[in-house]
Amino acid sequence: MAKIDIYTKAWCPYCVRAKGLLKRKQQSFSEIDIGSKTEKRAEMIARSGGASTVPQIFIDGKHVGGCDDLVALDRAGKLDALLGA
């Protein structure tokens, strides 16, 4: 199973959608709430190469992008390979 990190904020509908997709794929993930852990925001921006919106998703250390990117990977049939499914 892949190691997934997802940077989120509690009120973010895109974060909810991305987490829902990962849950439907029966994937566990580490959620880092940058709303309550503001020091993690700088970490997210550094890891993502400058992206400052949430969610930011990493699969096995590789930056996937945000919710739209995750959904696009799934629709293209490429997400399962990244997840090791």
From TrEMBL:
Pfam families tied to this protein: Glutaredoxin
One function term, GO molecular function aspect: glutathione disulfide oxidoreductase activity
Domain Glutaredoxin: residue ranges: 5-64
PROSITE patterns xrefs: GLUTAREDOXIN_1 (PS00195), GLUTAREDOXIN_2 (PS51354)
Entry keywords, A to Z: Cytoplasm, Disulfide bond, Electron transport, Redox-active center, Transport
GO biological processes: cell redox homeostasis; cellular response to oxidative stress
Similarity annotation: Belongs to the glutaredoxin family.
Biological role: Has a glutathione-disulfide oxidoreductase activity in the presence of NADPH and glutathione reductase. Reduces low molecular weight disulfides and proteins.
NCBIfam families: GRX_bact
Name of the protein in its database record: Glutaredoxin
